[in-house]
């Protein structure tokens, strides 16, 4: 990558390589810089903060990727019933 986060290049390149669009993709982040990068690329953002109490922009917020709510939220994204 020529431009590090918070530039969107990383996410845009990943979406292109995976044959998808940012609007159908989710970034899993833990920092404001990563979130800014994902937002600039147009992705949904799931946040598992590395610092407790951090006020971070997110579409989904949790404490673990193993939370059942994350799976439910992802299904709703796939169904088009979120946002």
Automatic annotation (TrEMBL):
Protein name, entry field: Beta-phosphoglucomutase-like phosphatase (HAD superfamily)
InterPro entries: HAD-like_sf, HAD-like_SPP, HAD-SF_hydro_IA, HAD_sf
A Pfam family per the record: Hydrolase
Taxonomic source organism: Streptomyces echinatus
Xref: SUPFAM superfamilies: HAD-like (SSF56784)
Stored Gene3D superfamilies: HAD superfamily/HAD-like
GO molecular function, one term: sugar-phosphatase activity
PANTHER family in alphabetical order: FRUCTOSE-1-PHOSPHATE PHOSPHATASE, GLYCEROL-1-PHOSPHATE PHOSPHOHYDROLASE 1-RELATED
